[in-house]
Amino acid sequence: MRKPLVAGNWKMNGSRASVTDLLGGIRAGIGEIPKAEVAVCPPFPFLQMTEEALRGSSIAWGAQNLCTEPAGAFTGEVAGSMIREFGCTYVIVGHSERREYYGEDNQVVARKEAMARERGLVPILCVGETLAQREAGITSEVVADQLDAVLELSGVSAFGKTVIAYEPVWAIGTGLTATPEQAQEVHAFIRGRIAEQSADVAAGVRILYGGSMKPDNAADLMAQPDIDGGLIGGASLKPNDFLAICAAAHASC
Ligand SMILES: O=C(CO)COP(=O)(O)O
User: Which of 67, 145, 164, 195 has its CA 20 to 30 A from that of 186?
Assistant: First the structure.
């Protein structure tokens, strides 16, 4: 049985004041939802505050990116070991915004995925197609290439320690959500691709949905057999919305 995960990707949002409020609101409101795991991923400068605010709670935290390299002359980069030192459990890798704006290709993302695991972090590996790719009917090829880069570099066992997030790019921040059926189709494809190499790993890997997940669509999405939680952008900045999605994940089990 896969335990659903709801992870908030705060992207480049927040200030000391707003992060204090957000963390306080989430911690105060989370209640007892033992059937779901919850995590927040703030920008790097807020990781220490996050650790201090959430230590001892049921809520985990993570970062939004890491460097492919372990340490050294990489100005502006942040190493996995540093992220780990701030108590992070998770790190997002290969978000479509990193792929699109910072030129991260499948090989770079696969190296980040491997580095995260080497440093004791659980990668949340983002995959997904653009609108043009969906309209061209190549969604499965695009997602397969994104997965295969990790399979080729690290082997199928990587997915024993990695969470996947399917995020159709056309649904991110647009208010357009994939229908539960559209999302389930791709989630099943992802699990099937991994099952070609290991049925056990495929059965255990958590596949989150991301892209305009909100309180009013979360339950329907998470009711799908291959949707194991959500990676939440905009709604994760509003404590009540985020908490409602967490409660939906708990109720989906
Ligand atoms: O990109 C996302 C999470 O990583 C999704 O963002 P939105 O929930 O704002 O669409």
Answer: 67
